[in-house]
Design a protein that fits this description.
The chain is α/β, with parallel strands linked by helices and 186 residues long. 43% of the residues lie in helices and 23% in strands. Strands 2-7-1-8-9 form a 5-stranded parallel β-sheet, with helices on both faces. A 4-stranded mixed β-sheet has the order 4-3-6-5. The chain is globular and about 50 Å long. The two termini are 16 Å apart. Bound molecules: guanosine-5'-monophosphate. The site of guanosine-5'-monophosphate has 14 residues, from β5 and β6. Residues 13, 17, 36, 40, 71, 73, 75, 80-82, 100-102, 105 line the site of guanosine-5'-monophosphate.
Amino acid sequence: MRKGTLYVFTGPSGAGKGTLLDLLREQDDRLYYSISATTRAPRAGETDGVQYYFLTKEQFERKIAQNAFLEHACYVDNYYGTLEAPVEQKLDEGYDVILEIEVQGAMQVHEKRPDAVMVFIAPPSFEELAARLRGRGTEDEDKVQKRLATAREELSQKDAFDYVVINDKIERALDEIRGIMSARRA
Ligand code: 5GP
C-alpha cells in the first residue's frame, strides 16, 4: 500500500490555520488530523482527546523522556507536542497526515522528516492578525501580547517553507491548499 504524505501546517496563532483545516477536513476523508498533547488548560468547549490530549507538566515531561514525540516545543508558557506513534501508524495505513503546529515544532519535523510538505499560513497583515486574535476572545490581553510577540518571530521564518499561503479570504486560501495537496497526490 502507498504510504501517506505528511503535511505540516504552521503559522502564527490567529492566522486562521484551524479554520482552514477544519473546512478541509469536512471535504476529504483520506486525511488524518494528528491530535497534539499540551499542558495548556482546556478552553470552554474543548474535550480531552478531541482538540488535544491535555496533560500535566509532569506527564508531558515523562513523554519527552520516553522519546514519544515527533516534535515538541514550548509556546507562550506551555508545552505542545506531536505524538509520533499514531502519526507513523496512519502514514503506514496510507492516510495523509496533517499536523497543525507552531514554527519551532515545524522546523523539528522538517529536520527529522525531510519528505514532509511544509506549508506556512500567513495573515494578510500584522494588524489583521492582532485584530483576529483579539476578536476571537479566547485569551486575555497579556496572552494576546505574548502571542503577537511570538507571531513576529514566526513570520520572519516563513521563507523557509515549501509554500506560503496568505489567508486573505478563506475560500481562496482553501483552494490554494487543495491545489498543493492535489499536486502531491497526482
Ligand atoms: P492554541 O493554544 O491556540 O491551541 O495553540 C497555540 C499554538 O500551538 C498554535 O500555533 C498551534 O498550531 C500550536 N500547536 C498545537 N499543537 C502543537 C504541537 O503538537 N506541536 C507544536 N509545536 N505546536 C502545536
